[in-house]
Amino acid sequence: MYTHLEDYVFNLYHNLSISRPEQLDIEEIANKLGINLYYSSSTYRYGNNIILQYDTKQKQWQLFGHEICHYLRHFGNQLTMKKSFKDLQEWQANHFAYHFCVPTFMLEKIHTPTVTDIISIFNVEFDFALRRLEMYQSKLNFDGNDLCLGM
């Protein structure tokens, strides 16, 4: 059973005709979503523009996942909002990035995925891959416990 966020990411990629990891391309996704993509010394989103910091392809993919959350799911100007609300949006964007960059519906097609698999297939950094694998395994354990309890 998917969470609301996993369903959201699945439907987003389905609507973009993306079903395989090799289709996870920053420029292609930005184009399909009508986002103008630029590169600079810092990362942020402004309107339909996402500016990505010059960095490794892995880091840029992860930053793109974070900024896509702000683009798709957040409103308002963080420069004028209360710190607690800004912190909430940042937490949500960080969490979203794990699911956007390494979608569950793609991850579950890998038999017993490892950190190395996630790094090579989804083009993310080690720490990001490790955390995403932990999230995925925790979900599997939780879902399995529900089944054992008859829920």
TrEMBL record:
IrrE N-terminal-like domain boundaries: 47-133
Protein name as annotated: ImmA/IrrE family metallo-endopeptidase
Pfam families named in the record: Peptidase_M78
Q: Which organism is it from?
A: Ornithinibacillus hominis
Lineage, broadest ranks: Bacteria, Bacillati, Bacillota, Bacilli, Bacillales
Tell me the InterPro entries matching this sequence: IrrE_HExxH
